[in-house]
Amino acid sequence: MLERDELKLYNRQIILPELGLIGQEKLKAASVLMIGAGGLGCPVLQYLVTAGVGHIGIVDDDVIDMSNLHRQILYTITDVGKPKAETAKQKLEWLNPFVELIAYQERLNADNAEKLIKEYHIIIDGSDNFTTRYLVNDICVALNKPLVFGSIFKFEGQVSVFNYKGGPNYRDLFPEPPPNDEVPNCDDAGVIGVLPGIIGTYMANEAIKIICGFGETLSGKLFSMNALDNSMSVYQITKQKQVVSTPPLVDKTVAKDHDISIETLNNWLAESPDDICLIDVRETYEFDDYNIGGINIPLYELQESADMIPLDKKLIFICQTGQRSKIALQWTDPYLKNEKYSLKNGIKF
Question: Quick check: is 243 in a domain?
Answer without folding.
Answer: no
